[in-house]
Amino acid sequence: MIAITFALTLLFASLQAVPVEEVGRLDVTPMDVSVPLVEGAPEVVAPKIVNGQQATRGQFPYQAAVYLDSSSFCGGSLISTTFVLTAAHCAQSVSRFTVYLGAQALSASESGRVIVTSTSKIVHASYNPSTIANDIALIRLPSAVSLTSFIQTIALPGRSLSSNSFAGSTVTVSGWGRTATSTSVSNQLNYVDLTVITNSACSSFFGSYILASTICADGSNRQGSCNGDSGGPMVVTSGGQRIQIGVVSFGSGLGCTAGYPTAYARVTSFLDWISTNSGVAISA
């Protein structure tokens, strides 16, 4: 699944208008951002490739599938009835978003699924495509969506968690991204459980690309996010509540299954920005 390798220059294959009824296709370009490993980065030894698991319908009701100008693809998460959180590299050059909510299989007909078209976005003003800093954005939906058993919002961290590195925590990442570096976007929603690593450990692979506003997950068992998972949620469960602490951002240019960490925008670093631009209240 879940792979995200995005080249420092973002891949936007030719953008062309496609009727909404044709969206749900799998022949779209998964967004891809990758960075080179630093010289002397630790070697990764893994015995086999371990893929994620297929999600059941309604297992991740906050998950959004986002078609970008009908030719590229990213993930996102519903944080309120009117806003989807995603990555800046997904939204920056896009004028039209087709958002699927309550979906599990992209190409199949599903009851309770909602498809919304939006032309309104808010990209972090300090997003830098060269350093991938501040890789976070919002998609504003034209009207509030109704919450159902298949469509729910995801909680954001309270301010009390701002100093929590989450290192060692088990997190879940979900999306329709490639299940291996060479495959196409998945028709089925998949997920994988990963372990958060320290930023120090992550910077031994990616150097200065790792900032205080980055959070990384271990990839040594060759699981992780991949192309097309960009913008999707990294979620931790605490006290029985699921909380989004990351937004899929970038990985290694050596491929999704090479066994290297994957990097995410650290949501706790952007709580004020999210609240100011979406109106979502952040708890203490």
TrEMBL record:
Domain Peptidase S1: 49-279
Keyword terms: Disulfide bond, Hydrolase, Protease, Serine protease, Signal
Pfam families: Trypsin
Keyword Signal: yes
GO MF annotations, alphabetized: serine-type endopeptidase activity
Gene Ontology BP annotations: proteolysis
Record's signal peptide: 1-17
PANTHER family assigned to the protein according to its UniProt record, in alphabetical order: GH08193P-RELATED (PTHR24260:SF136), PTHR24260
Name the UniProt record assigns to this protein: Peptidase S1 domain-containing protein
